[in-house]
Amino acid sequence: MRLAYPVLWPRLGRDASQEQSVKTAASLARQGVEVTLILPRGRRDPALGAQDLRSWFAVEGDFQVIQVPTRWGGPHLASSCLWLLQLFRSSRLRSAELLYSRVPAMIGAGQVSPIPFATEQYRLWPDEWPFLRRHVRRTARHRRCLGYILHSGFAADSYRKAGVPEGKLLVAHNGADLAPDAPGRSAARNRLGLPAGAAIAVYAGRMNERKGLDQILALADLRPGTLFLLVGSEREGAIEAEARRRPNVRIFGWQPPQRLPLYLAAADILLIPPSSEPLERFGSSVLPMKTFSYLAAARPIIAPRTPDLADVLADGGNALLVDPGDPELAAAALDRILGDRSLARRLSDGAARSALDFSWDARAERIAGFLRRRLAEPGPACR
Fold first, then answer.
1. Do 120 and 56 share a structural domain?
2. How far is the C-alpha of 265 from the C-alpha of 132, rounded, in Å?
3. Which has the closest alpha carbon to 354: 304, 289, 294, 307?
4. Per-residue pLDDT at 306
5. Taking 60 as the threshold, does the pLDDT of residue 380 lie above it?
6. Residue 96 pLDDT more than 80?
7. Cβ distance 259 to 308 under 8 Å?
8. How far is Cα 77 from Cα 65, in angstroms, rounded to an integer?
9. Same structural domain for residues 242 and 291?
10. pLDDT band at residue 74 under the 50/70/90 scheme
11. CA–CA separation, 372 vs 31, rounded Å?
């Protein structure tokens, strides 16, 4: 199966969407799919090859990379539509059997794709922008549309309600890199210069006002005896400024994929901000990728009780879930884990077991199987 995978970014960056696309491409390649990532390249953009991406994102997989000179690209809707249309009119897709992309503009532009296509989405676009429902439905019914791949059952419901046929929906949660050689807690703390006997809670991810980090800072105020690590800072923003006022909060910069597991291994508890705002107000955090890295780290997790996380996290099984927006409840959950070794061990074991089901390879196997089945069906995917 030969798959063309257009993206919007011309340069290597730290955005989760880049990491997710490259890890998807690499894991599909490990399943035997011939994957070609197609990057836009402006006049001032650097030359990039597959090895550059493999090194930056610490992945293995024999995918290919081509760069296409263009005036377009980037995250804006208009430019991303023009970038896709340029590809559709070029010869770049002639050797591919199908086009696969998470570019949001595929919801509309996919209807003019010259080859069978599938689009991967994580946001609830039909709910956020109701006028898109007819485009979602029309694209799904196009004879070349293989289907929609969604990152959560919660997101899939949005597309199902918009009229996407069940046979063209696949829920494929993101994955984690399983790291059997990850250091133990004591070794990780020693390498990072962290106190061996401290109670440590870790958040790893983007730092801005949209991530609900105010709830973690409020939790730090309630539990001054716990050391909180915020890992992933890229600049001195409002969250960093607030965090530095607290003696029990430490800030660490963005970490490359091969180093991040060291910080997770040092934790007693891993934190997904116990807030509903990233999902309900901003919509940009739907079942965040950190959830899967946390599971692979095999540490107890505290997370908000939200419908997207319910896909993956089970209260008392692999995490403790708390009602969002109430730091006192999060503090009580933290106390439970720190005060009950058997509970902490049970949650850690549950996380490790869950991670086996949410590896990148398991995800790629599901996606590749879905695409092969859809391509083999007569009629809908014909050229």
1. yes
2. 42
3. 294
4. 95
5. no
6. yes
7. no
8. 23
9. yes
10. confident
11. 12
At residue 283's C-alpha, the angle toward residues 122 and 106, to 5°, is: 40
* DSSP H helical ranges for the chain: 16-30, 50-57, 77-89, 106-109, 125-128, 133-140, 153-161, 185-192, 213-222, 238-243, 260-265, 277-280, 290-297, 327-339, 341-357, 360-376
Whether 381 maps to a domain, the answer reads: no
Q: Which domain holds residue 194?
A: 185-357
CATH number at residue 25: 3.40.50.2000
Q: Are residues 75 and 210 in the same domain?
A: no
Dist. CA 266–CA 253, nearest whole Å: 16
pLDDT at 379: 63
Region at 132 (left for phi over 0; alpha for psi -120 to 50; beta for the rest): alpha
Angle of the 327-339 helix axis to the 213-222 helix axis, nearest 10: 60
Question: Cα(41)–Cα(103) distance, rounded to whole angstroms?
Answer: 16
Number of domains the chain is built from: 2
Assess contact for 87 and 68: CB atoms under 8 A: yes
* 301-304/98-101 β-pairing: unpaired
**In this structure, which amino acid lies at residue 262?**
L
